[in-house]
Amino acid sequence: MRRPLSLPLFLLPLAMLVFSGCSVPVPAQPEPPPEGPEEIFSLPETRRLEPLSAPGIVMEGRTPAENRTPAPPMGDRDYHGNMMRWAYDNTTELLAEAPEARFYALPRTEERPETALILWGERAAEFDWNFSTPRMYPPEMDCFDLDGDGEDELIVLCYCGSGTGVSVWDLHVVEKNEDGTLTDYSTFRYAEGGNPLWGGVSSLLRLERMGDRAFLIPGRELAEVDSTALPEKDRAPFTGSTIQFEVFPDERRIRFWGGVDVFPASYVADLSADAAYQDGVFTLSNFHLYGND
């Protein structure tokens, strides 16, 4: 005798719907998106950036008077303390040293408020450098072959400008001449109105807005900056108010660092570059931009 057909329990609800003349409801289809152009955001175009060169500001060293050449220092070197004594006691003080070279600050006079005496081997020369601010950062000095000509150059960094939104180090490269004198080539001097090098760096920078976003562009790099910190009317970005250098004696190279401003906003980004020197000319290359979030 044949046994009656039985359905699994989980199929019973479906069978009941079929026999009752009802069908399983079809899931609702999502509504198509409204027709219209899709919003596409494209970044500003970039371009190749060539190295930037400018001649250094030249200053010939003066032969110092015999009684202005101090004896070699003895003991520990407290350069910051020495600078404070020079500022307040108006004495001759040692501010920096390098192999076979020393930097002395000479007593101030009305004619020459800041005089650097450079002793390098058997040579000596005075320079009217700016090397002091209220922050009293002492100079920094290294000696190596910077330009690859087989002869060492004296590399001196002087902190020459400070204030609100201002922090400037001047790069000096001192060369020995065949006649026994010393010649200085520098990147910045207030008396000379700055240096074409920093004006050239500013000319490499572009500021472009894309809707409510803003981008700073040097060459093939770009960095997004805070558009809310920028003025309503676009102004050209610039550098030169914040300048510093990082010296790598073992690698015989120098790296430039600078802040990028868009008046009245300050420090919207940071910029760096390799700083090279050859025959009295400074060259910046391999620029890199860092967004300042």
Outline the structure in words.
The termini are far apart. The strands form three sheets. Strands 1, 2, 7, 8, 9, 10, 14, 15, 16 and 17 form a ten-stranded mixed beta sheet that branches. It is built from three helices and 17 strands. It is mainly β and 293 residues long.
Number of helices: 3
Helix content: under 10%
Structural class: mainly beta
Sheet having the most strands: 10 strands, mixed
Total DSSP E strands: 17
Give a quick set of tags describing it.
disordered N terminus; 3 helices; 10-stranded mixed sheet; about 290 residues
Strand and helix map with partners:
Elements: H1 12-19, E1 52-55, E2 57-60, H2 79-89, E3 93-98, E4 101-106, E5 115-120, E6 123-127, E7 140-144, E8 153-163, E9 166-176, E10 182-186, H3 196-203, E11 205-210, E12 213-218, E13 223-225, E14 238-248, E15 253-262, E16 265-278, E17 281-291
Parallel strand pairs: 9-14
Antiparallel strand pairs: 1-17, 2-10, 3-4, 4-5, 5-6, 7-8, 8-9, 9-10, 11-12, 12-13, 14-15, 15-16, 16-17
Kindly summarize this structure in a few lines.
With 293 residues, the protein is mostly beta strands. It has helices at residues 12-19, 79-89, 196-203; strands at residues 52-55, 57-60, 93-98, 101-106, 115-120, 123-127, 140-144, 153-163, 166-176, 182-186, 205-210, 213-218, 223-225, 238-248, 253-262, 265-278, 281-291.
